[in-house]
Automatic annotation (TrEMBL):
Ranges annotated as biased composition (Acidic residues): 649-734
Keyword annotations: Disulfide bond, Glycoprotein, Hydrolase, Serine esterase, Signal
Signal peptide residues on this chain, from the entry's feature table: 1-16
Keyword Cell inner membrane recorded: no
Carboxylesterase type B domain mapped to chain residues: 22-525
GO-annotated molecular function: carboxylic ester hydrolase activity
Comp. bias regions, Gly residues: 547-648
InterPro entries linked: AB_hydrolase_fold (IPR029058), CarbesteraseB (IPR002018), Carboxylesterase_B_AS (IPR019826), Type-B_Carboxylest/Lipase (IPR050309)
Low complexity bias spans: 741-756
Protein family: Belongs to the type-B carboxylesterase/lipase family.
Listed PANTHER family: CARBOXYLESTERASE
Pfam families: COesterase
Native source species: Helicoverpa armigera
Name under which the protein is recorded: Carboxylesterase
Length: 795
């Protein structure tokens, strides 16, 4: 009997050894378990980097932790912070949101072979949701001849806030992806992989990531083939047009008002809780963006992209790699659940649904393009049940189809002769028809759903099982050889595309090589984007100190924007006249005190917007006449006290013809001194609106001690006044009022006492509508449904 026991012990030890595989990495040994599929080992939750925390949470990733003891890589459930509680949406999973989320999952064939090709797969989710283990490819890996890596990266604001500062440079989520690729290069050989045969693939936002990584110098040489599935580097959602404005706009929705002070804005985001940063989904925007996403960074060390994707593609300054590039034939079904709501909105205000990467100089040009789109897609008829398929086409083309075809064309023109185009068009007889039709289509990332594991495949139709075999063969061919159809394949020959989007493979149960891929639709948008494209720009440089002016007149500003003040005091004006502002925006004051005016006349404001006050006190006026306001918008007050009026007369001309500052007033008190000892200005007040934001939170300054001006009282502005601040209104001046020869108009809709209680009705209604939209779970659940298809068999 003791011999039997010895044999059983030995067999158990062998089986235990077979259940685990240990691999040494640069950070220490890790142990993976045999996967239930039986033909591979899975290493979950392996740290590839460390996410900075606290006020550093937007910085580039740090190196991963080092261990000396073996690490059991078995936890499947760590995900990065995100809006949706994925645990409640994914049956059978017990997911844990954590800032310590930069982990990789490595799937290694049960073989002793080395130098295997590697597939790195980037998950999608609008840059807002998702995690690496959302998809697995055990069926694709049955050939046991390549390794697969999936991973998490930072999402939403956490991953894509872009202020252009040292602490918030932008693209943290993409820098995580670069860190993962570097980890693969340094460690994958220990798992049996070849770091020189890495294919990078991804779906939806992951597809856009792959396409952007191909353009980034930071990722050059880290992968060698690419498979973007339904997402391109030129997608409107793939690049923030103006990341600073995005950050400011969202901060206001979070009740932070001092958005024009970049240092204060940065501090707000750096100290915000993760719960606050993940409070909104951004999934319901009609402009084909999800608000926060990748950005063009300032040219600093460690930047991911310092030029726009379009600029890089046109210059050809990137590594040309073999590319398997395409989309499903009805990507726009992604928005089908919004149809009943959006069709009426499209009929009443189609401009809301234009892609965010178009810009028009005039309303007439915008209306002309809108009419062209309505005619092209809807035959000039209202959007209705009768043309719902054209609605699907529109939301296929704008976010997915056209950006892919535009990028493919530019790549071929730049010399990439290995771009293989496809359209996934297979539909199963059991798929739902499009509402109000008898037509079926392949919806967003349908090719990914076919490729990856899902529900029990034996329950699917034989046609769909055949389609899955075909798409897996094509992807496998590309991973191994760099071509989708090798010479010895039974599939139709598949040559690379030319610049006219031809040929392409139509992926059906029996694939068919065809000519131009959606050429008429692509050319339609080519004509529009050639004239009206709004390219992405980096954030402005952080503030630097301004020097003191000389003893002569201050120079006139140029035709561009005035410079931003530094974090110290603004420079003092010279003893002559202050310089006139340029035709662009006036510069923002720094975090210190604003500079004092010179002993001559104060300079006139430029024709653009007036500068915003800094966080310190506003500068005092010069001893001469005060300058006239510019023709553009007035600047917002700073957080400190407003400056005292000059000792001379107020300006004799009219106030600026533009609007008051669109941001909130300063949070400090108004000027503590008198309004100036001379007469008030003889001209009218500005003709534009008051500021659209709230008034300052401090008290208003006291009025001047001198007499009022002899001219007409200025009109209060033809638009609405801004909302009052939370402090008291300023006291009236101690001198006599001016001889008023004209009638004063309404001062605006704000509360005279600055109580902040009187909001503009339109703004309130818009805010309420925004809250209702964000509160809707319909579209959010639709997104989760798409991704949950990839999880039904991944427990």
């Amino acid at each position: 009997w003791w011999r039997t026991c010895v044999v059983l012990v030995c067999v158990t030890a062998v089986l235990a050894d077979e259940e685990w595989r240990q691999v040494n990495t640069a950070q220490g040994p890790v142990r993976g378990q045999k996967h239930p599929s039986g033909h591979l080992y899975a290493f979950y939750n392996v740290p590839y980097a460390t996410a900075p925390k606290g006020i550093h949470k937007f910085k580039a990733p740090l190196p991963p932790p080092v261990r000396t003891e073996p690490f059991d890589a078995v936890n499947k459930n760590v995900v990065c912070p995100q809006y949706i509680d994925m645990d409640s949406k994914m049956p059978g999973r017990h997911l844990e949101q954590s800032e310590d989320c930069l982990i990789a999952n490595i799937f290694v064939p049960d073989t002793n072979e080395n130098n295997l090709p590697v597939l790195v797969y980037v998950h999608g989710g609008a840059f807002i949701l998702g995690f690496g283990d959302m998809m697995r490819a055990t069926q694709l890996m049955k050939s046991k001849d390549f390794i697969m890596v999936t991973f998490n990266y930072r999402l939403g604001i956490h991953g894509f806030l872009c202020l252009g500062t040292e602490d918030v440079p932008g693209n943290a989520g993409l820098k995580d992806q670069v860190a993962l690729l570097r980890w693969v290069k340094d460690n994958i050989a220990n798992f049996g992989g070849d770091p020189n045969k890495v294919t990078l693939a991804g779906y939806s936002a992951g597809s856009t990531s792959v396409d952007l990584l191909m353009l980034s110098k930071a990722a050059k040489g880290l992968f060698h083939r690419v498979i973007p599935e339904s997402g391109a580097n030129l997608a409107a959602f793939g690049m923030q047009r103006d990341p600073l404005e995005v950050a400011k706009s969202h901060a206001k929705t979070l009740q932070f008002t001092n958005v024009e002070d970049i240092s204060a804005l940065e501090q707000f985001y750096k100290t915000a809780s993760m719960e606050l940063l993940t409070a909104d989904s951004f999934l319901l925007r009609p402009d084909s963006t999800f608000l926060f996403g990748p950005c063009v960074e300032r040219d600093t060390e460690g930047a991911f992209l310092t030029k726009s994707p379009l600029t890089i593609l046109k210059n050809g300054d990137y590594e040309k790699l073999p590319m398997l590039y395409g989309f499903a034939n009805m990507e726009g079904l992604f928005r089908i659940d919004m149809f009943n709501d959006w069709k009426d909105k499209m009929n009443s205000n189609f401009a809301e649904f234009l892609p965010a990467d178009l810009k028009f100089e005039t309303d007439g040009a915008k209306e002309e393009v809108i009419e062209l789109i309505k005619k092209f897609y809807f035959g000039g008829q209202p959007v209705s049940n009768d043309n719902i398929l054209r609605y699907v086409d529109y939301f296929s083309d704008v976010p997915f189809v056209y950006p892919t075809l535009r990028s493919a064309k530019l790549q071929v023109e730049a010399g990439n002769d290995q771009v293989y185009l496809y359209e996934y068009s297979f539909v199963d007889e059991n798929d739902n028809v499009v509402p109000h039709t008898n037509v079926r289509g392949a919806d967003h990332v349908a090719q990914t759903v076919a490729l990856m594991d899902g529900e029990d495949e034996s329950l699917k139709s034989q046609a769909y099982q055949n389609m899955r075999k075909i798409i897996r063969e094509i992807w496998h061919n590309f991973i191994i050889t760099g071509t989708p159809v090798p010479a010895d394949s039974s599939l139709p020959a598949w040559p690379p595309a030319r610049a006219n989007w031809s040929p392409h493979m139509r992926l059906l149960e029996k694939p068919v090589l065809q000519g131009v891929l959606l050429g008429e639709r692509a050319q339609f948008w080519d004509d529009i984007y050639e004239k009206y494209y709004l390219d992405a720009v980096p954030p402005a440089a952080p503030n630097t100190d301004n020097g003191n002016g000389g003893e002569g007149d201050g120079g006139n500003g140029g035709e561009g924007d005035g410079g931003n003040g530094g974090e110290g005091d603004g420079g003092n004006g010279g003893e002559g006249d202050g310089g006139n502002g340029g035709e662009g925006d006036g510069g923002n004051a720094g975090e210190g005190d604003g500079g004092n005016g010179g002993e001559g006349d104060g300079g006139n404001g430029g024709e653009g917007d007036g500068g915003n006050g800094g966080e310190g006190d506003g500068g005092n006026g010069g001893e001469g006449d005060g300058g006239n306001g510019g023709e553009g918008d007035g600047g917002n007050g700073g957080e400190g006290d407003g400056g005292n009026g000059g000792e001379g007369d107020g300006g004799e001309g009219d106030g600026g013809e533009g609007d008051g500052g669109e941001g909130d007033g300063g949070e400090g008190d108004g000027g503590e001194g008198d309004g100036g000892e001379g007469d008030g200005g003889e001209g009218d007040g500005g003709e534009g609106d008051g500021g659209e934001g709230d008034g300052g939170e401090g008290d208003g300054g006291d009025g001047g001690e001198g007499d009022g001006g002899e001219g007409e009282g200025g009109d209060g502005g033809e638009g609405d006044g801004g909302d009052g601040g939370e402090g008291d209104g300023g006291d009236g001046g101690e001198g006599d009022g001016g001889n008023d020869s004209g009638d004063n108009t309404d001062n605006g809709s704000g509360d005279d006492n600055g109580s902040g209680d009187n909001e503009d009705d339109t703004d309130a209604a818009d805010s309420a509508g925004h809250r209702d939209l964000i509160g809707s779970n319909l579209m959010i659940l639709t997104v989760v449904l798409y991704f949950s298809k990839l999880l039904l068999n991944t427990n």
